[in-house]
Design a protein that fits this description.
The structure holds 2 protein chains of 2 kinds. In chain A, 35% of the residues lie in helices and 24% in strands. Chain A is α+β, with helices and mostly antiparallel strands. Chain A has 2 domains: 2-154, no CATH class; 171-284, Immunoglobulin-like. A 4-stranded mixed sheet of chain A has the order 4-11-10-7, with no helix packed on it. In chain A, strands 5-9-8 form a 3-stranded antiparallel sheet, with no helix packed on it. Chain A is rod-shaped. Chain B is an alpha+beta fold. Chain B has one domain (2-152). In chain B, 56% of the residues lie in helices and 14% in strands. Chain B has helices at residues 11-32, 37-43, 49-70, 107-130, 132-152, 177-187, and strands spanning 2-10, 81-83, 91-99, 170-174. Chain B has a 3-stranded antiparallel sheet. The N and C termini of chain B lie far apart (75 Å). Classes of the chains: A alpha+beta, B alpha+beta. At the A-B interface, β1, α1, α2, α5 and β6 of A face α5, β4 and α6 of B. β1 (2-10) of chain A pairs antiparallel with β4 of chain B, so a sheet runs across the interface.
Chain lengths: 285, 191
């Protein structure tokens, strides 16, 4: 099994972060030495068209670098390719990255992954910005980007394998015999209608089989997840030996008429008290 | 994105400031030493045609230096700094196309500082021949004016983004392919 993760990189936020960080650096530099006024002006990534163009180039290239980190964690059909969004989402200023990952990816980390991915792109942008101006500042943001990368990798730690479980039925539905309700008398008692029905009422609406007949009892069981791998643990009991539940040659439960009489027949789960069904039988010659 | 700054300057005001300054200095010299009467008359600038022409030349040179110094701050584009200085018009303007993050409130201080720079630079040129030592004061003043003009051109903080960091989120979708297969097996399972 696999999961699909969708994370978004917001372009405006990335550009703004780069501008903010470089603005602050420039202000500090000016304060330290007034001679640096002109230098600081140019260090501050601003709204100049060529600054925007540089930042844009950094951003889109680093988004691609980010995507390569995910290569080791992809499952399924290598669905990083589902990033058809690069072209489509640019208009909205968002890059959507879709990842098909192991089912054991911890859902709790998806927001962490999104934010660290965004921050990685930003830190790398600022790193590249300073790279041509100040190696010292560049190193600071290069280091921050490395930390982001380590965090991104850590998000993909697999959770423990899920424990194997036996899945027992949570509901049963009789398919055969068909004993419809007659007036106020229901045909078959299941956990849903036990509240207002007495066993004795069943005798007003029995299933009739002959002595020596071998009649199949058919049912469907349901489990959690709508019946995934549910285990059949249904047993059948007759209250009166006039009829005898048995396993037929087809492997299904059968009811065999032994002698004339009445009986209540109960189908029940050996593991779940809430799963049962009852009906009445009259055995005739 | 960019903004246009227009500095409105007055040639007559600038000339008047230069004349007043040189007049004052020469007068003090005369008082100290009457022998210098003739020298002082020549040192006092103004009125004479040749002095007016000199001043116009100094002004053009000073304005040229100012524009060259601003080249670091104006937009990278042709015609991003221009002036309308001429010999016939008193009022002239300097137009600069600057970054969008220029602080509008500093346009007027910048205009005053620009005039101060031009006057000091002209006085330096004026005194350079007759009193070289004295002229150095004006270099210092002109440099001071330029330093403050540079401060006027500092970038303001970037405008805040319309999205917040908390807007960065991710989602997980459970893929159903394999569970569908198991469901199919179950459908054929009834006992």
């Amino acid at each position: 099994m696999s999961k699909t993760i969708k994370i978004q990189i917001l372009h405006e936020l990335a550009m703004n972060s780069a501008k903010n960080e470089t603005y602050q650096m420039g202000v500090v530099e000016k304060a330290v030495d007034a001679k640096l006024i002109t230098a600081a002006f140019h260090e501050q990534a601003g709204n100049e068209a060529y600054h925007e163009a540089m930042l844009s180039r950094y951003m889109f290239s680093q988004i691609e670098v980010l995507k390569t980190f995910f290569a080791d964690y992809l499952t399924g059909g290598g669905n990083v390719a589902e990033d058809a969004t690069i072209s489509g989402a640019e208009a909205n200023g968002v890059t959507e990255i879709l990842l098909s990952v192991s089912d054991r990816f911890n859902d709790g980390y998806v927001k962490t992954l999104a934010r660290l991915s965004q921050k990685f792109v930003e830190d790398r942008m600022i790193y590249l910005w300073w790279h041509s101006v100040s190696k010292e500042f560049a190193a600071i943001y290069g280091g921050a980007a490395e930390e982001d990368r380590a965090g991104i990798m850590a998000c993909f730690n697999k959770t423990a394998p899920s424990a194997p479980v036996y899945r027992f039925p949570t509901a049963i539905e009789i398919k055969y015999p068909i004993i419809p309700a007659r007036g106020d008398v229901p045909g078959i008692i299941t956990p849903d209608n036990t509240g207002h029905v007495q066993d004795v009422q069943l005798f007003s609406n029995p299933w009739i089989i002959g002595i020596g007949d071998d009649s199949e009892i058919s049912y469907t069981i349901y489990g959690e997840d709508n019946g995934v791998s549910v285990i059949d643990d249904i047993m059948v009991r007759a209250d009166n030996p006039c009829c005898q539940p048995c396993i037929g040659s087809d492997g299904c439960w059968h009811l065999r008429g032994m002698s004339a009489g009445f009986s209540v027949v109960t189908l029940f789960s050996r593991h779940n008290d809430q799963v049962f069904a009852k009906f009445a039988v009259r055995v005739v010659k | 994105m960019s903004k246009t700054i227009t500095l409105n300057l007055n040639k007559a005001l600038i000339f008047e400031a230069v004349k007043a300054d040189s007049f004052d200095t020469a007068r003090i010299e005369k008082v100290e030493d009457p022998v210098k009467l003739a020298a002082a008359a020549a040192a006092q600038q103004g009125g004479e045609d040749h002095q007016e022409r000199q001043m116009l030349r100094y002004l053009k040179a000073a304005l040229g230096k100012f524009e060259a110094l601003m080249s670091e701050f104006v937009d990278v584009a042709d015609g991003s700094i221009e002036d309308t200085l001429s010999s016939s018009q008193d009022v002239f303007t300097v137009t600069m196309i600057v970054n969008d993050r220029y602080n509008n409130g500093l346009a007027t201080p910048m205009s005053s500082l620009c005039e101060d720079y031009l006057v000091n630079q002209m006085l330096y040129d004026w005194w350079r021949k007759s009193k070289p030592e004295y002229s150095k004061n004006f270099v210092v003043d002109a440099q001071d004016a330029i330093d403050h003009i540079r401060l006027c051109l500092a970038k303001t903080a970037p405008s805040s983004s319309s999205v917040d960091y908390t807007d960065v989120t991710g989602t997980v979708t459970q893929n159903q392919n394999q569970t569908d297969n198991e469901q199919n097996n179950q459908d054929s399972d009834p006992a």
